[in-house]
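Today's session is about reading a structure prediction critically. Students often jump straight to the picture, but the first step is always the sequence itself: look for stretches that repeat, for charged clusters, for runs of hydrophobic residues. Only then move on to the predicted structure, which in these notes is written as discrete structure tokens rather than atom positions. Here is the chain we will use throughout the hour.
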Amino acid sequence: MLSRLLRRLVAVCLGAMVILLFGVGTSSPLWAAYLVMAALSVFGVTLALQCAMAAHANRHDLVPPASALQLLRAWLREAWVAAKVFVWWQPFRSNKYPDRLPDSANAPSSRGIVFVHGFFCNRGVWNAWYPVLDSKQIPYAAINLEPIFTSIDEYADLLNHAVDLMYDRTGQKPLIIGHSMGGVVVRAWLRASSTDSKVHRIVTIGSPHHGTRLGLWAPSRLDNIANAHQMRFGGQWLRNLAQLEVPIRRSMFVCFYSNCDNIVFPATSATLADADNRHVAGLPHLAMALDKSIIEQSIALL
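Below is the predicted structure for this chain, in token form.
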């Protein structure tokens, strides 16, 4: 579903640029260039505003504040990664790497990984992981969270099926890795099923465990999108989720968080009490899902 939507958006944007270049450009090339640059700058300005808001929210947080150079590098890195993920990987390459599952639990196999992506993403966001896992012959499965805009609780069955399938095929409890909203989906699944015994460990990457202040500054129409509303900073849904968790469950989590996360801030919103919280300085939100160090540390947990 999301890949089709993104393909259409990419086609519309490219079509608009072609019309602009050949329509306005034939009579006024300079004005056409100005308009194209202005359209592209909207994306960069949006990311810059997010970085500025994150820096402001982190002033009184426990995490070390990001330097100006860290914020600049994070902005540039996120612009490149977001373009790659949303314009290429997710629309056109989300199924380039199919799930890698053994034929049965009777075949020798290492422990597997189940991937859970974030808000307005699909399994293509994990494309940096799949070749590494293939080279190590590590089983993996990545779910697509659909419908795109629904309550986080509605994704529990999708995750439960993927975890059961991975266990059936490998004979071992899987490692679950969630980016952004995906980490909260895992917690909601555990609340719904109370199946902690099915899981080896859980890794969350930039997940809004306590919500994000970006949600408070987002347009009020997001209140009509259930999963976006549930991730607002200090929201009732997240507070209810936390009240039903016990320390032994939270101790299963490894939480990566960053002082340059431009989506989830303040930074420690991506941490959990009793968890193994690991600060990765200077990394923006989407780039964390592609970071080589995080990939290596996560695989080591197998």
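Discussion point for the tutorial: The two ends are 31 Å apart (CA to CA).
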